[in-house]
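note to self — DONT lose this again. spent like an hour looking for the file last time. sequence + predicted structure for the chain T wanted, 285 res
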Amino acid sequence: MKSAVLPKIRELKPGFGAEIDGVDIGNADDATLDGVVETFQRHGAILLRDQSLSTADLMRFIGRFGAPEEHTLKEFTLPGYPNIYVLSNRVVDGRPVGAHNDGIGWHTDYSYKAEPVMCTMLYAVEVPPEGSDTLLADLCEAWNAVPADRKAELDGKIVHHSWRHFMATRDYNRMEDPPEDLLRDNPDVFHPLVRTHPADGRRALFVSTGTVKGVVGMSDEDGVALVEDLVEFATQPQFVFRHRWRVGDVLMWDNRCTLHTGTLYDDAKYFRVMHRLWVKGDRPF
């Protein structure tokens, strides 16, 4: 079956991303969904608005992109759906229904794994009328903007990522003494500072905050400072798209060529419920 040609596509920002109109994910045929996947592979991020999706719809859609990934922490996955993680500040019967303030700070998901997730999907169930925006930085455009001599210095460097370091130092939901099974399942890993996109060979900075412990061949302090400088460079306004959420939005971004961060909102006044899904990735090169 050939992929469908999607007639209504516009950029999220010049040179980055695609908003796809006219596709009802829950009722779309496989050819149409494969057309959505092809658009995603070329553009770094996609947005589809006004969706009304069941858990089955979410799983069918994410499955068109690849094998769904499970989540490191299981507490807030939907019962019976280990691939669907809830982000929320709601509390029901004295118990949080989701992870709150998860994803604050520029990062790429699962960078602490040998095979980081290929893409992240968020589906908006309940959103505040203000705040809680998601920002995406285009790491291909950022790499293209690096001067040639600086590219020569950076290309080939290897970054040390550590889940343990991340959990012990993060601003929200800190875990300074993780269970041994989680430490065993999440050993430190090493990834290239500049990675190649397998779909078409385009290159991108592969930087993050939180998980980075150092750069091979440098002191940890200097390595972290280098990565932080590159994150600051890559998240300048000209590289960033800001998404303002509406209920029914599906936003997906490519972790191989983007950074993202959530933003805060008045969580004493408003509620937010999002469903997050991941797709398995491969080893960066």
